[in-house]
Amino acid sequence: MEAHLRVVGPMNGKFVFHKRPDGTIDKGKVVCLECKKEFAYHRSSSSLAYHLNAKHPAASAATASSEDVSNIASQSKAFRQTKLENTPRMSKSATDKLTNVIAKWIAMNCRPINIVEDEGLTEVLQIASNDPSYKPPCRTTVTTKISKMYDGEKKNKLEILAEDSPNCVAITGDHWTSAGNHSYFGVTGHFIDSEWNLNSFALTVMRTETRHFADKCAEQFLKVANDWGIENKISTIGTDSAANMLAAMRALPYEHIACNAHILQRTITVCLDSSGFVGVLAKCRKIVGHFKQSPASTTELNQQQVALGKKSDQLIQDVPTRWNSTLAMVSRLLCNREAVQATLDQQNHRLVLPTEAEWAKLQRLELLLEPCKYVTELLGGEAYVSCSVVLPAFRHLYRVMDITDDDPAYVVKFKNAFQKDLAARRANGNEIWFEVATALDPRFKDLKCLPREKREQVWTILENMLQAAEPRRADSLQPSTEDDGPAQKKRRSELLLGSDSDSEDGIESGELQRYRAEPSISIDDCPLQWWYAHSGVYEKLSVLAQKYLASPATSVPCERLFSLAGHIVQKKRAALLPENVTRLVCLSDWLRKKK
Fold this sequence. Notes:
Keywords: DNA-binding, Metal-binding, Nucleus, Transcription, Transcription regulation, Zinc, Zinc-finger. This protein is of the alpha/beta class. It has helices at about 45-55, 55-80, 90-110, 120-130, 140-160, 215-225, 245-250, 260-275, 280-290, 295-305, 325-335, 335-345, 355-380, 390-400, 410-425, 430-440, 450-470, 510-515, 525-535, 540-550, 555-570, 580-595, and strands at about 15-20, 25-30, 40, 170-175, 185-190, 200-210, 235-240, 255-260. The protein starts with 14 loop residues before the first strand and ends with a helix.
């Protein structure tokens, strides 16, 4: 019987299957191991359990005890409570901090507010926070946070402007049309604080409904000044040279500074249209347009560039309203001349390529326009003093445009037209302001950019100002150590060139005489740091320096503000409310400069 297979089930261990004489197993019968009695088995153990209870009570009790233990264990395992994973949850303070960071990120980087509903952003934040249950704040919460952030930042800036330290504030203003065909009026403010740091930030970008008449423009400037409480502190207003702006400035009691970058770029456009470069520039535009309109041609050009070991750069088309775009088009074509010619040789086209003489024209044009680009970028900065650089920069341009014996006729024509047009446009500008600012800049106070007889007139004007000025001692605080100049330092020394004399005899006494006796500092040094160190010695002059050096030389800061607004008021966001546009644009400008 030991060879019999035991029955699997509750009676396991007390019954075995019957074994036939031939050695096979009969699963229809079982044999009791206690009394050797056979029973029919049909996969039910009821009769077998009855037999054990009736004939073998001891064996039945042992089987029951074993089954109870097994049942209890199985039931305990089945009803055992599932153990929850110990996943960390973000605290309320951490959640609030993350919400503030998200709102700041949206405002500073011009992201749409509905980005918080992006599933991808939710997944990223859940992984970063190690909290699978985290959900980004809703749009209403972000909008409220941004509104509070704007109010807080504006309050801080109002408090700064209300102090006595910025005794003068220069502003720039212009109009802009959004993607939704709405007109906005943007204004930026600029001043030097008690620490001799140059501050620059947006004041407003407000919706306007009226036409840009001169009287309306004047009213808009006054409204912004009153809203910020600087109507008695404005020193200069910088605008472009549009007729309505010029008329508005004549109606306002403030000094006007015409945008020198606009003046220079307008001169370049006029001179190019009336010079010997018209024909070759027309050919360049057609060549660039040929590649711009054909992706296949662009691909072939890139292949030729790679074959010649050059970088796969796209050609650039010039735009009349985009500064320095003509220079960019010419420079890119000259750099890729061989690749362009090789590509066009393999194509069937009707383009007329420039001749060797015309390619030489383009090289000369590049040399003429490169200094203009440098001056435009130099004067367009707002993180450093630019007003005092105007006269040295234009003096450098006049030297570049001096006619030489090697100049061909078309270059002579361009240079003559450039000098006459630029001089005519600057004739009605605020030259006295630039002259005083240059004299108050310790880098250019020798006034080498002016004729000898003109220099004494500038010092006389300064002497009269000092006699009428009230002394004011600047606070002794640590000045800013930020770099005050643009990246192209290698050419800045050229601005010091161009004078008829290197010395002049002064007749003034007191502060002005001592200031003139001071040695000029390096062109790479910061004039504001110099004035911080010497403001206690030159009390009256330091007040004038804060006023004149704070004015920007161009209205580029306002144009830069509109570029920022263009990232916010896009086609998909053209229906933004005017107050939301103001908050988003100004807050983005403030946060970027604060960072």
